[in-house]
UniProtKB/TrEMBL annotation:
SUPFAM superfamilies: (Trans)glycosidases. This is beta-N-acetylhexosaminidase. The active site is at E190. One of its GO terms (molecular function) is beta-N-acetylhexosaminidase activity.
Length: 370
């Protein structure tokens, strides 16, 4: 009997060393990815965000942190593309260290292809390298309004420009190295400008093939260094057939790219207004998928329940394609922290990113402990 008890304690001790916490075991089985996605902090909020990771993310067993960096880093490869105030290598090291300490996978994001502008402002890549613009004939407005005659939401770079990948891959490689990561998030959501009729390289080409080609180009580059590509999933959904429309899905025929991209690309499937069950579609296409809520707590809980149900009822082949949940926050870290800690007035409806985060992870905790 004593020998059996000793063996049991030895096994429990091994599991603790292997996982870092016995409590992690049911959560890991429940959801392989328990994520949080947010804009990287400004340099003066790094220490506060490190504390948030330590005190709020880690205790909730968040195991994946996606930081939208874009040009908020002091790039050495292309200093001309830095934001005027940007994170230093020392700042990033603080983030890396706290994530490693708490077994959180840290994944940086730079928006590739789309989201190269916002409202009336052109972002750094096209501002410095205007020759990469897919639609140079579309001028940025003095006062931005939607809808508009040009169909301008966000600018895109031309995926067929012969020099664009040299520049963007310099950024990708540098940011992946400083973040010490084995994965990279390329964004690629809400791409409205692709295969423009006036582009000398893209005109007349199939938009699905253009989109899939860019995904594969990025994926293949990352794979050379053993890294995995993550992207948002909206451009791979048919907005017309599903009724999801032009924001959460594609109305410009990029959706057929879902059958053309490599199967190891990780899909972040976001739906904010309704808990649509599109993870099933991605899983049936052979892709691993995470569901991504934003600001509606009730939807987040329903999406979590769906994800757990999918994993519980799927075939053996499909189960692990339902990969988990990622809370998204569409502000920088500092603004979110002000909301989270009650330093600014919140939406009276309760539909906020901080409330959604709390509701989602409270439900994960309850479910994992049952």
């Amino acid at each position: 009997m004593k020998t059996q008890i000793a063996k049991l304690y030895l096994l429990v001790g091994f599991l603790f060393l292997y996982t870092g916490s016995i409590a992690q075991l049911p959560a890991d089985s429940l959801l392989p990815v328990r994520g949080f996605c947010i804009g990287a902090p400004q340099t003066d909020r790094v220490d506060e965000f490190v504390t948030f990771i330590e005190k709020e993310l880690a205790p909730r067993q968040v195991n994946t942190l996606i930081l939208r960096v874009d040009f908020n880093y002091a790039f050495k490869s292309h200093p001309e593309l830095r934001d005027s105030v940007s994170l230093s290598k020392r700042d990033v090291r603080k983030l890396v260290k706290v994530c490693q300490k708490n077994n959180i996978r840290l994944i940086p994001q730079i928006n590739l292809l789309g989201h190269q502008s916002w409202a009336r402002r052109t972002h750094n890549l096209l501002r410095v390298y205007p020759q990469f613009d897919e639609t140079p004939h579309v001028q940025m407005p003095v006062s931005y309004k939607w809808p508009n005659a040009d169909g301008l939401y966000c600018k895109s770079y031309c995926p067929l420009h012969p020099e664009v990948h040299k520049v963007v891959f310099d950024l990708v490689d540098e940011i992946c190295e400083v973040f010490e990561t084995d994965a990279f998030h390329a964004g690629m959501d809400e791409v409205f400008y692709i295969g423009d009729d006036k582009c000398p390289r893209c005109s007349g080409r199939d938009k699905a093939e253009l989109f899939a080609g860019e995904v594969k180009t990025i994926r293949d580059h990352l794979a050379q260094n053993g890294r995995t590509l993550w992207i948002w999933g909206d451009r791979l959904l048919d907005g017309k057939t599903t009724g999801l429309g032009m924001w959460e899905a594609s109305m410009n025929n990029t959706h057929r790219a879902v059958d053309l991209i490599p199967k190891d690309v990780m899909i972040c499937d976001w739906h904010y207004e309704r808990p649509d069950q599109t993870p099933v579609y991605f899983a049936m296409k052979g892709l691993k998928v995470m569901t991504c809520p934003w600001r509606m707590p009730k939807n987040a809980v329903l999406q979590l329940q769906d994800m757990i149900k999918f994993r519980a009822t799927a075939t053996k082949a499909m189960k692990d394609r339902f990969h988990g949940m990622i809370q998204t926050v569409w502000s920088d870290a500092g603004s979110f922290l002000d909301e989270y800690y009650g330093r600014k007035k919140a939406d009276e409806s309760g539909n906020t990113a901080s409330n959604c985060f709390r509701a989602l992870y409270d439900e994960i905790g309850k479910t994992a402990s049952r």
